[in-house]
Amino acid sequence: MARRRRRLASRVRGYVRGFLAFLFSNVGVVVLVIAYTIGGAFMFQAIEGASEMERVSNMTRERDNTAQYLWQNVTLTLNLFNETALKERISIELLNYQRKIVFAVRRGWDGGISSRQWSFSSAFLYSMTVITTIGYGHLSPRTSWGKIVTIFYALLGMPLFLLYLSNVGDLLANWFKCIYALVCMCRGCPGFTRRRVVHFRSQLELSDVESIERPAGWRQEYSGSEITPEPIPYVPQHRPDPRRDYFRSISLPQPSRNPRPDPIRGWSEPLPRPGSVSSDFAYVTFDVQTITVPISACVAFMVGYLIFGSMLFGMWEKWDKLDGAYFCFISLSSIGFGDFVPGERVYTPRIETSFIVCSLYLMLGMALVAMCFNLMQEQVLHYYACLKRVIKRIYRCKR
């Protein structure tokens, strides 16, 4: 019985560890952010939706009561030919109705007669703007519970979204660098031959230096990406020059003809054989961590995403291209003025879909912005390292 309990406990711990590892992986963080936003949408819809329905019901009843009172107590009791008395009585009733409208608007009524403000899609967009710190301001909680829940929801959601930006931004940056290397570092691109020759020459020089610095009696066997030194017996030969004996006792590494993929560096490439450097150009090798994407490519990618968003929202919301681009930039930069919000100006049957599309656009767009910032930061550091090497060389030449 005790063994079964221990086995069950160990299984439960294993499942919990696996579940937590999945949650904090790249896919798990994305799923967690989406689930957290959906849960927040249902929660805010339940809290604020009931209050909104009550406000709409009260204002509809006040409107009907005012119209009924004007018909029964004003039109039927006063003399219709007495224009002055009729206007005074109607003005008093309309002024009271206006005061009720102002009071209701201050408490969150949007002037509509249907409870569509806190629908699921609008609540989903509200949850997304809370954790992304955009905060359009077009929708805000009016109840005490709604305000309290918003505070704790933001306290937990903002660090979660920052974790999402960090993980997904790094993942997208690696993918973008791989695509950039495959597209822009191909064989047909200008300068490919020069880059390959420099690369192979540096590899040969490095292998020669390593073979010279290695002590006698050691030999490398090169296979794929692993290098395993194996000791061999050293048999000295009687030569007039001892250094010649030293160099003859060392065997240079021989490249493998069948390169194997490396899980870290992408593709592995055999070292070029002597006299056949041009024949090895078919192998394109690169390390993802050493690739730097130009800043111009990152800026062009972000501009393209803004243009795509401007066209999308211009088609859905009947905005012009400038307003759409302005809305996308204000949203992705987390400024969020709130002067342009999807679904505010026109009401169409597709407004629910528009809210969902806007939320997904923001979620993906902010991850892409984080990706571009990571790539531009790497490029700036690369420029700094190059400038540092140039300054060192200039300083050495002067000495």
TrEMBL record:
Record Gene3D superfamilies: 1.10.287.70
Alphabetized InterPro entries for the sequence: 2pore_dom_K_chnl (IPR003280), K_chnl_dom (IPR013099)
Gene Ontology CC annotation, any one: plasma membrane
Residue ranges of the region described as Disordered: 250-269
KW Transmembrane (keyword) present: yes
Domain (Potassium channel) ranges: 115-173, 302-379
Membrane topology, from the record: Multi-pass membrane protein
GO BP field: stabilization of membrane potential
Alphabetized GO MF terms: outward rectifier potassium channel activity; potassium ion leak channel activity
Positions of transmembrane segments: 20-47, 118-136, 148-166, 291-313, 325-342, 354-375
Assigned protein family: Belongs to the two pore domain potassium channel (TC 1.A.1.8) family.
Protein name: Potassium channel domain-containing protein
Organism encoding this protein: Pieris brassicae
Lineage: Eukaryota, Metazoa, Ecdysozoa, Arthropoda, Hexapoda
